[in-house]
Amino acid sequence: MSGDRLEPMPEDWERALAVVAHPDDLEYGGCGAVAKWTDEGKSVAYLLVTRGEAGIDTMPPEEAGPLRTEEQIASAAVVGVHDVEFLDHPDGVIEYGLPLRRDIAAAIRRYRPELVIMSNHRETWPGGYLNMADHRVVGEAVLDAVRDAANRWIFRDLGLEPWQGVRWVAGASSPRSTHAVDITTTMDRAIASLKEHKAYLAALGGELGEPETFLRTAAEETGKRFGGRLATDFELFPM
Question: Structural domain tally of the chain?
């Protein structure tokens, strides 16, 4: 799959909801595409399952959680996203199950998206590096919650009308990517968005701690399968 040409992402939609485990997940994946979409007048909202409180080794969760919340809100604003919600599931030990599916289904019913975006839920990242449990669990829950949200007889206690209008789920940075978005005009904003995670990046260090190098290299690599343009990739699931 890695050598296959990527197809353009669908553009005939107006509302999207991005559901990921942690602050920074979208910034390491699809935020260049989000910036392009909001520039075009599309509505995108973010739903974070945790506040990333267990993500900084040198900072206790009680301090890291509020700080990473602020960084995520600032980061989202850079790419034109102003609706940012947090579910407050525990970082690092997210459990797949009905409570998680219920929370995500509720958000889908409220936001009524046509496109749902998530992070890579596969066992590995492109290149073979192992993915972490939180990403895998949230991705599986997103796929199931889309169907839950469409069934009026599931989670009836929410008091929300079912939403059957999700047409696609898109997983960012998957090793099985099928589609891409040209982010030539939004590359700089994607980098600026990741840079808003100042405390996280400072603690991270290494290649991942260098937004300019990491994101531009990834966009160039994806572009080899997308006509040579700077691009970000998705695994697209029609619903």
Answer: 1
